[in-house]
């Protein structure tokens, strides 16, 4: 039995990265702490850089990565926010850093529990974003992310996200590969323009005016565009070792479903249970889990939701003043369909507010009753004032 | 690497050809004509100049030319961006600033002698 954090740290031990620079923060603390033990005990050869802030941690990671090192780190919430300035730089430098992002609400108010308000602001920073449902998936995703990030056609850093405490601290059975199998799968990093190659000198991050900034960004976008193809190849390769498959978009009893909940990360388990219950009662319910949020699997999502009667999108973060991130992507993806399903946006679970089976049941029930609102509804919110909408 | 070799890298004509990761290879600024950015031109009056070298020290583009005796002899208009620091700090007012348009009457439109920084327009379809 192990937790999401310790599964991440175990994958790191087996991969044995060249450099880890981290500044621990709840709930991702265990990742660097456990890994520091591996370093101290001589179980890995990694250079562990103890730094004075998250900004320094990710900066050290970028420097090491463009020097040719295989680099990993982890953070959460306001630590992630402090790193924000460096994320687009890492992506533009094509620094294939693998990042354990343990989702926690962004203060204020200060809160240590899960929502996605820390990772969602980084969705436009040029990093791949993978959201895991459980600890097993976290472990497998670290192996996948290492290969994906470093692939010549991709060269893009990857966030491996898991839900704070719910996934990061709950113990569950996790199946590990042997050390040798992991080493064989991840191989060694092939670096094309290492900063420390003094015989073939290059500069990273030079000043570029309007004459080439545009072309460099377009070139970077192509790396992200190559992710789906490369990801599918690597996921197939890993599946031959583990027997576990991780599509970018997981469809659970979706094929003949009339009503579908679109959700991410750990809350998916609850929705799947409710789908099973409803199926026993002949309600054609389905669940669609978005595992890869960047790049967003638009085409897959479009074909999965084509012809559905109703869709509910559950966001674990809000875009204050706009449409919540997942709902925004789903609506945008479905625009090209001739006949679009009805969509209801929901916000849930902010600051670790529990998400219960009855909440998912209520969402399906509203779809069956053709009960939609143009505004987002809130699940599990105290609101027994004027209206009780979304509060039950 | 010589300046000529560095210049032979040429400018990429397509976004697919830019090096990945913001990488810049070894190159030179000697062929880049920053003088094309100038809108005010410094003019040196050698009769007033006492070669105190303040302009030589302060010029951000190392555009103050000297002769073999370390005396100020002119201004390198290939690089000079026309910032006017030299004119501002000159203790004898030997350098004065004049609009480039004043010279066009006699010289015609500025002729491009080096690489024009910021110019890729010719490649854009």
Characterize the structure shown.
With 392 residues, chain A is an alpha/beta fold. Chain A has a seven-stranded mixed beta sheet with strand order 2-1-3-4-6-5-11, with helices on both faces. Chain A has a six-stranded mixed beta sheet with strand order 8-10-9-12-13-14, sandwiched between helices. The longest helix of chain A is centred in the middle third of the chain and has 16 residues, at 135-150. Chain A has 13 helices and 14 strands. Chain B has 125 residues and is α+β, with helices and mostly antiparallel strands. Chain B has four helices and five strands, in the order αββαββαβα. Chain B has helices at 3-7, 54-58, 85-89, 100-107, and strands spanning 24-25, 40-44, 64-66, 72-75, 95-99. In chain B, the strands form two sheets. Chain B has a two-stranded antiparallel sheet with strand order 2-5. In chain B, strands 3-4 form a two-stranded antiparallel ribbon. In chain B, a hairpin with a 5-residue loop joins β3 and β4. Chain A binds chain B through residues 66, 92-95, 155, 192-193, 201-206, 208-212, 214-216, 218-219, 222-223, and chain B through 11-12, 14-16, 18-26, 117-120. β7 of chain A pairs antiparallel with β1 of chain B.
């Amino acid at each position: 039995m192990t937790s999401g954090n310790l599964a991440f740290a175990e994958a790191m031990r087996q991969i044995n990265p060249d450099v880890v620079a981290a500044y621990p923060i709840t709930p991702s603390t265990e990742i660097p702490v456990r890994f520091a033990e591996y370093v101290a005990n001589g179980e890995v050869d990694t250079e562990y850089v103890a730094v004075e802030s998250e900004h320094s941690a990710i900066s050290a990671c970028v420097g090491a990565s463009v020097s040719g090192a295989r680099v990993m780190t982890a953070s959460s919430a306001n630590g992630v926010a402090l790193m924000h300035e460096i994320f687009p730089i890492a992506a533009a430098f094509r620094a294939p850093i693998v990042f354990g992002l343990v989702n926690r609400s962004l203060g204020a108010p200060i809160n240590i529990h899960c929502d996605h308000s820390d990772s969602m602001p980084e969705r436009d920073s040029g990093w791949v974003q993978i959201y895991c449902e459980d600890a097993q998936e976290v472990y497998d995703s670290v192996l996948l992310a290492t290969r994906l990030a470093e692939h010549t056609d991709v060269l893009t850093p990857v966030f491996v996200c898991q839900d704070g405490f719910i996934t990061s601290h709950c113990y569950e059975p996790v199946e590990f590969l042997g050390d040798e199998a992991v080493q064989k799968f991840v191989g060694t990093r092939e670096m094309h323009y290492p900063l420390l190659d003094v015989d073939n000198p290059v500069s990273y991050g030079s000043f570029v005016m309007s004459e080439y900034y545009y072309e460099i960004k377009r070139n970077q976008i192509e790396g992200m565009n190559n992710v789906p193809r490369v990801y599918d190849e690597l996921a197939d390769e890993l599946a031959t070792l583990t027997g576990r498959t991780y599509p970018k978009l997981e469809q659970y009893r979706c094929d003949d479903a009339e009503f579908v909940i679109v959700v991410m990360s750990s809350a998916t388990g609850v929705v799947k249970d409710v789908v099973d219950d409803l199926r026993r009662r002949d309600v054609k319910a389905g669940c669609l889990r978005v595992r890869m949020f960047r790049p967003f699997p638009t085409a897959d999502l479009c074909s999965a939701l084509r012809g559905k009667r109703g869709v509910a999108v559950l966001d674990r973060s809000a875009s204050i003043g706009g449409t919540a991130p997942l709902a925004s992507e789903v609506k945008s993806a479905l625009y090209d369909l001739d006949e679009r399903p009805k969509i209801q946006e929901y916000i849930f679970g902010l600051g670790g507010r529990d998400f219960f089976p009855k909440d998912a049941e209520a969402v399906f029930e509203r779809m069956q009753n053709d009960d939609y609102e143009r505004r987002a509804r809130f699940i599990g919110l105290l609101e027994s004032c004027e209206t009780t909408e979304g509060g039950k | 690497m010589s300046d000529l070799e560095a210049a032979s890298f040429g400018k990429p004509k397509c976004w697919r050809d830019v090096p990945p990761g913001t990488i810049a290879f070894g190159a030179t600024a000697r062929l880049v004509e920053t003088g094309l950015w100038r809108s005010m031109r410094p003019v040196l009056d050698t009769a007033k100049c006492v070669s105190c070298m303040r302009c030589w020290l302060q010029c951000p583009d190392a555009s103050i030319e000297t002769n073999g005796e370390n005396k100020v002899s002119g201004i390198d208009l290939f690089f000079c961006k026309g910032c006017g620091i030299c004119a501002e700090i000159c203790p004898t007012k030997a350098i004065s600033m004049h609009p480039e348009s004043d010279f066009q009457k006699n010289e015609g439109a500025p002729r491009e002698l080096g690489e024009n920084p910021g110019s890729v327009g010719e490649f854009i379809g």
